[in-house]
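Handout, page 2. Input:
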Amino acid sequence: MPPSRTRDDQRNAEASSSKVKSNPKRHHHRNHHEQESSTAPGVQKVKAALRQTRRLLAKDNLAADVRVETERRLKALEAELHQAEVSKKERAFAVRYHKVKFFERQKVTRKLVRTKKSLESAEDESDKTKLSSELHESRVDLNYILHYPKAKKYISLFPPEVRKGEEASPASNADAKRTSQEREGVRKWIQEQMEHGDLPEEPELELVTQHGSGKARAQKWPQGAAVITKTQPSRSAGVQEDDFFEVDENDETSS
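Output:
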């Protein structure tokens, strides 16, 4: 004789079945990926559409109005492909440099807070002038970290050799000089954005408000820009960069 099922057993079975069917976390995770794929088509999807469009344009007997419309679509797809590739690169760099930016942001923020407190308690005018200059430099550094061009390889403000107190070998001085010039070029661009009002003069307030309201943002990094400053000495001149922080000119695009 088969065992009889009680009402409690039936209720437990129904409850466990409903949990399996509706997992809110799994459902949310799936919806997030579906929304992401629908709003940001991948590079391969756009490339496939480009191939179809070019095959259509290659036909000799294509009607004039269809050809005009297809050429317009081709230009739109080429622009979409460029944006998709830039977005893909930005996401990769965001993941790659998240950790180093986090630690540098902490270091710069702590220095900024100390400088502000010292400035508030300073009485000598020369000390105030010096501390005001240091405070401005720290704010430029903080904006550098927060608003570094997204599609450009991140150049650390504090390279490994600087953090460890090591000296660069003479053979690496040329690469170190180039990297230092690139770093100062981005800092100069960041400072110009602050002067124009496109970036906040007090970026520490942006951190307090969870990146603020988004009203002040840097303009796009110039296409193919290799801004090099010779008037401002690099704070890390002569220090060799490792591959993790080094700028690869072939990988640079506008953000």
